[in-house]
Design brief:
The protein has 7 helices and 9 strands; from the N terminus they run βββαββαβαααβαβαβ. By secondary structure, the protein is an alpha/beta fold. It has a 5-stranded parallel β-sheet, with helices on one face. It has a 4-stranded antiparallel β-sheet with strand order 2-1-4-5, with helices on one face. α3 packs antiparallel against α4. It starts with 6 loop residues before the first strand and ends with a strand.
């Protein structure tokens, strides 16, 4: 099988509900994410979106034989396997999740520090990412001094530093103006063209149409 068509995530007939809810969150939901996909997931309910993100991060343990990462059942992962799995993905949140008292450079390198992989080779990669994200002149700036657009670019740069298997963008354009939203979309398109796999979760149909007119995408409705 070509590496470009490598299956990363597969959800098979996922059926799940919260104990205090009379309705299903997922009812026989199926999904596949392949390497180099640019996939939009459109959600109608906030609880569906939030639950899916938690499943894919293994914050919620799914039922067995329903969610697979590279054909391995994530419900069966040990604690150590969960930690290794989480280092293979990265989430770009709508509120960035940056550390306010750290500089741009320190925020980007933080995933390497917590995983014990903060080596010289990865620090060299930092300069390439700073250049790609147009952040070279901001590397020693503290987070509160950045604009929203700059903060989002830092969040994306932080995702790239650890070479994730895929990037999950969780409403990264929420409450942003149309111009800034399109800039973020353009940046993710460019990353996808460079073989980064993108899973973009949103309810913004206008943004989906914008990307669809410029790039090859997959669309899944929740």
């Amino acid at each position: 099988m070509s590496k470009a068509w490598e299956l990363l995530v597969e959800i098979q007939w996922l059926t799940w509900w919260y104990k205090d809810s009379p309705t299903f969150v997922f009812d026989k939901f199926n999904f596949k994410l392949f390497k180099n996909d640019f996939c939009f997931i459109l959600w109608k309910s906030w609880v569906w979106k939030t639950t899916l993100v938690k499943f894919l991060q293994r914050q919620i343990v799914p039922p067995k034989k329903m969610i697979f990462y590279k054909k391995e059942d994530i419900a069966r992962f040990t604690d150590n396997e969960v930690q290794r799995y989480r280092r293979k993905i990265w989430v770009i949140f709508q509120d960035f999740k940056l550390i306010e008292w750290k500089t741009v450079k320190q925020n980007i390198l933080y995933p390497l520090e917590i995983s014990g992989h903060d080596d010289e080779k990865m620090r060299k990669k930092l300069n390439d990412i700073l250049y790609k994200m147009d952040l070279m002149d901001k590397k020693d700036v503290l987070v509160p001094q950045l604009s929203w657009w700059e903060k989002q670019r830092v969040a994306i740069a932080r995702a790239l530093i650890s070479n994730p298997e895929f990037i999950m963008a969780d409403e990264p354009t929420w409450n942003l103006d149309r111009d800034t939203s399109q800039k973020i979309a353009d940046l993710l398109i460019d990353l996808n063209k460079q073989w980064n796999t993108i899973l973009f979760i949103t309810h913004d149909l206008e943004l989906v149409e914008y990307v669809k007119n410029k790039h090859n995408i997959k669309i899944v409705n929740l």
